[in-house]
Amino acid sequence: MYTIRVQNMQFHGHIGVLPEEKKVGQTLQVDLEAVINAVPVDDQLASTVSYGDFYPIVEKIIDESHVNLVETLAQKILTAIKQLDSRIQTVTVRIRKLNLPVDGVFNNVEIEMKQS
Prior knowledge:
Blueprint (H helix, E strand, L loop, with lengths): L1 E12 L5 H5 L2 E11 L17 H11 L5 H15 L3 E10 L11 E7 L1
Antiparallel strand pairs: 1-2, 2-3, 3-4
Helix pairs in contact: 2-3
Family: Belongs to the DHNA family.
Enzyme class: lyase
InterPro entries: Dihydroneopterin_aldolase (IPR006156), FolB_dom (IPR006157), GTP-CH-I_C/QueF (IPR043133)
């Protein structure tokens, strides 16, 4: 068993409840962690899960999703990554929203969701 991590993928999305978020959008950063229930037995890509497949899946979901809740977006990503390969045992996703139309001083808002 081993873990693949893809960190700080960046996208522009239109996720949120506020009208400004839906219209203008904001920068989203995504971290993805997949626990793989396998051990590569040779030096062939087929003996592992290709992390190169993760980015296009996340990108497509963010491009097509105009949901209110970042939690809904996280769930869509978890489901799609988990369905990618039966050797993926657990998926954790962290989504950070930057440039929020919220009064206050802070770097971002982050949610983390895990699915086994």
